[in-house]
Amino acid sequence: MIGLSTYSFFWQHSDRAPQPLDLPAMLNRTRELDADVFQICDYQPLLGYTAAQLRDLKSLAEELDITLELGTKGISPAHLATFLKLAEALGAKLIRGMVNTPDHRPTLAEAQDLLKVSLPAYEAAGVTIALETYEQMSSTDLVSLVKAVGSPHLGICLDPANCVARLENPIDVIDRCAPYVANLHVKDFAFTRRGGWVGFTLEGAELGTGLLDYDYMISKVAPEACGINRIIEHWLPWQIDFAETSRLENLWNANNLAYMRSHPSS
Question: What angle (nearest 5°) sits at the alpha carbon of residue 136, between those of residues 135 and 139?
Answer without folding.
Answer: 65
